Every structure is written in structure tokens, then in C-alpha cells.
Amino acid sequence: MDPLYEALLYCNIPSVAERSLEGHAPHHFKLVSVHVFIRHGDRYPLYVIPKTKRPEIDCTLVANRKPYHPKLEAFVSHMSKGSGASFESPLHFLPLYPNHPLCEMGELTQTGVVQHLQNGQLLRDIYLKKHKLLPNDWSADQLYLETTGKSRTLQSGLALLYGFLPDFDWKKIYFRHQPSALFCSGNCYCPVRNQYLEKEQRRQYLLRLKNSQLERAYGEMAKIVDIPTKQLRAANPVDSMLCHFCHNVSFPCTRNGCIGMEHFKVIKTHQIEDERERREKKLYLGYALLGAHPILNQTISRMQRAAEGRKEEIFALYSAHDVTLSPLLSALGLTEARFPRFAARLIFELWQDREKPSEHSVRILYNGVDVTFHTSFCQDHHKRSPKPMCPLENLVRFVKRDMFVALGSSSTNYYDACHREGF
């Protein structure tokens, strides 16, 4: 793939219309519950390229500036009334929308807010207007909302929620705080997962060492900003360069020259190669299977309760990061899925067959594309069944048993897989 085209996909400029296959099912199927995992929207960089001027991007929300959304002003107005809302600590200390004339590090931009207002509106049109997932008088216990403790994830979750439920009643909203980017709640201690991650990071390091073009690009950039190459690497310049690229801001210059598009292309090309090798070597898959298990286990429990007819938590929203979605995609076997761009969405739908009410099926969608039959737990099912979805039992069996089988261990539960000796 062309590295610049890949970078454009990553930016996901909101004016680009996107096909969406959410909510598609034969007429005799009833939508029972929906589970949404998002990456936060477009943000200001987390790192600064040393000795260069920070990109000047305005993080206030302005109606006459592109990109725009018809609900933008109403969103700001509604957020300003939410200061008394209940959020799990420490979320109540965070601002509910971005508001700095010069963005702070990692702050959500107007682009990021618009991306998730759009996501929310899209899901509203499909799940509420078409499928009536929630009644008009929906109650607080029908939603499950969770976010990490970063302003960009809370604000992205609120923007999507506002697009989904415009002018929602603040008294019905409760965001839970998740300290871990893996959303592993009380099941985060997993030594074997960390060992997989260490081996994966070693693989990344060795691949980087082999790439003389990448080495040269970093060397040239380090000379331009007059610091050692090692220090430039530690400053993760691609994060800042992506911001320049996505917001059409010139790359930084010093009296020694300019960091340019050719440097950016070399780094992006290497990232694409790294993704390819990551899939082949499978170390990341081991990390992902253990990293994603707690949140997948929580999701199937919620689905099973909904399948039994329970009406609580039928719409779940997790506002998260690329390091949340990547392990989920990998664990599900979605090897062709692109790296989670800003405002990426991964959705699990649970459906009931009205003709056979005891039968429930799932669909998995990534950025509006139906990827159900690309998952490792449902790859072959469509060859045996005309239904455009997968039995819920397949997903349950995958999470309860097959994820551990895929690790190549004799473990049959999460604790044993995390603590097995001799890995």
C-alpha cells in the first residue's frame, strides 16, 4: 500500500462519505444488543519534535471552521450543562469538550469531535430510528459507558453519545473509569501476556535495525534538529508528523533544513512492513489473545444476559485507544484489519431469530464493514449456513475455550494461561 494513502486513511478526514453495513439483517431478525468499541478521535500529538515549533492547531470548537457538524454548537451547549453529571472518579476532573486556542498535548481537536458526532449520528439512524434498540423513555441501566482517564477518550465518548442520543438527560449518564488501556478491570495481572509483549518489542527492534533507509532518515532528521539520533527516536517524531500531515501544516524547519515528506514516507513504509511482519511472527497474537480476553469475556457475559431477555446494558460503549482496539482485532483473527485510525469503531451486534426465538447470532463490524466471516471463530460458518451472521455459541466457545487453544497451551482458563510456567 502507498504510505501516503495509508496515512490519509489514518487521518480519516470526516468529509469522506463511508459506507456502513451496521444493522443489516433479514427482516425476521430482531436486534437485541450492541457493543461499541471506539478509538478516540483526531488529537494533538503526544510528543514534540525537539527544537522545533509546535504545530499551531486550535482546539476550541468553532462553528464556521471545517470540519463542521450540524450538531456542533448544540453539543458544546449541552456539554456546558454537564458539570454536575456523575462520572466515576477521577473522570469528574476532566473537561467535557476541548477548549484551548493552542491545543494541549494529546487534546482532542475539532476534527476528533466531528468524527464522533458523525459516528453517533450514524448509529442513531440505524440502531434507534430503524431498529428501535432503546425505547424513547430509555433508562440509565440500559447503557453501559466506560472510558480511560484521558480527556480525549471521555470527550470522544460524549461526542458519540450526543450524536446517538441528542440532548440526553445528564441524570441518566454514568461513565465508568477504566485504569487500563486493555480494559481488563480486575484481571490485569498476566505475566505471560507481558512476556509476549517483551518478545514482540524485541522483534520490532530487530526489524528496525535491519532497515538502513529508516536509519538514514532518522539520522538526517536528527541533524536537522541538532540532537542525537537516539534522542530523536525517543521523541517519536512520526506522531507529530502525522499531525502536520493530517492538518495540512508544513513539516518543521530549522536553520539546518526541513523535515520533509520523504522522511515521513520512509517511516510510514516501515510501519506498514512492521505490521506485515507482526502478523507473520504471531508474537503479537499471543499478547493480543491474553490482552483482549477480559474485555471479550465481559462482552459475551453481557450478550448472554441480553439473550436471556434481560434489558440492562443493551447498548455498551467503550471509549478507548489504538492499543485497545489493536489487540481486540488481532485476537478475533482479523488479520487484514488496518491499524485503528482516529475514530475507528469496532461493533458487536446481537440478533434474535424471531422464527426461532431461542437462537441468537452475532455480527462483527469494523469501520462499517461486516467482518463476521473473517473472524477466526466464524470463518467457515457461512459455507454451512445461509444466515448472514454467526451463532452466539461460536463466539462464547471462542472466548471460553478456543482463545486458550490458539495459544498452544494446555490451559483452559485465563488465570492458568497467564501464569503458565516454561513459556
TrEMBL record:
One term of GO molecular function: phosphatase activity
Q: How does it sit in the membrane?
A: Single-pass type II membrane protein
Q: Which cell locations does it reside in?
A: Golgi apparatus membrane
Task: Write down the InterPro entries for this protein, in alphabetical order.
Answer: His_Pase_clade-2, His_PPase_superfam, Histidine_acid_phosphatase
Annotated keywords: Glycoprotein, Golgi apparatus, Hydrolase, Membrane, Signal-anchor, Transmembrane, Transmembrane helix
Q: One GO term of the cellular component aspect?
A: Golgi membrane
What's an example Gene Ontology biological process for this entry? glycosaminoglycan biosynthetic process
Question: What is catalysed by this protein?
Answer: 3-O-[beta-D-GlcA-(1->3)-beta-D-Gal-(1->3)-beta-D-Gal-(1->4)-beta-D-2-O-P-Xyl]-L-seryl-[protein] + H2O = 3-O-(beta-D-GlcA-(1->3)-beta-D-Gal-(1->3)-beta-D-Gal-(1->4)-beta-D-Xyl)-L-seryl-[protein] + phosphate
> Transmembrane: is it a keyword of this entry?
yes
Function according to Swiss-Prot or TrEMBL: Responsible for the 2-O-dephosphorylation of xylose in the glycosaminoglycan-protein linkage region of proteoglycans thereby regulating the amount of mature glycosaminoglycan (GAG) chains. Sulfated glycosaminoglycans (GAGs), including heparan sulfate and chondroitin sulfate, are synthesized on the so-called common GAG-protein linkage region (GlcUAbeta1-3Galbeta1-3Galbeta1-4Xylbeta1-O-Ser) of core proteins, which is formed by the stepwise addition of monosaccharide residues by the respective specific glycosyltransferases.
Q: How does it assemble?
A: Interacts with B3GAT3; the interaction increases the 2-phosphoxylose phosphatase activity of PXYLP1 during completion of linkage region formation in a B3GAT3-mediated manner.
Q: Member of which family?
A: Belongs to the histidine acid phosphatase family.
The identity of this protein, by name, is: 2-phosphoxylose phosphatase 1
Source species: Pteropus alecto
